[in-house]
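Backbone geometry tokens:
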Amino acid sequence: MPDTAQVAGAPQPAPTAAAIQGAPVAEPAMLMVRSAGIRMLTEPIAAAARLTGHTRVLIAACRPGDGASTVAGALALDLASRLGIDTLLVTADGAGAESPAAGNGRPVRTNQTGVPHLWLARCTRSGEPARGGAADGERAERDAVVEELRAIIGRYRAAIIDLGVVRLDARMLALARPEDPVLVVARYGCTQREELAATLAVINVANAKSAGVILNGYESPAADRLPWISHPEHEGR
């Protein structure tokens, strides 16, 4: 697993057949999926999935709009469509949450997408008044989601989990095992240094494994697409 990676906009669109039915990240992920940065990440994930039988990667955003959901969707789409790995894309941050009727009364709804080897898991919300106070009810609901996801995730060769902005809500980090990498997405020219530092601090407090930073939206010549560590021109961003 590379420590860091760049993800720039890919000039070529993904095949039109690779549509994620009902997924909120479908179109942007299809545009990103052919970038060199995405392929650099998915190939070792696929190798680990084949060697161990199951692997999972968690994607955390530093701030809303960093593109973590798009990166997660692109990783899952490439694993499934190009590499043939049975993959579960988890929208664990509550995006795309549905009514309990849609989820048949369960806290998580899983369905096959329009892409072979790709499934989507989405959280459901009760919509009922919380017993014992709003905070207790929300905690119980989130605990039920985490427990259900733990039972579901292991059925697939690979799981890509979109955590959302973990410095604002870190509870889904409970899905990370000690060996599972957490990749942080920052947007070039937008994400502040303090937001990145706070995100990494939350991951460390949760005893999760930070595997590096994906710098989203960084445009560079193809020959310059190397792991981004730190360059003088990036100082102060």
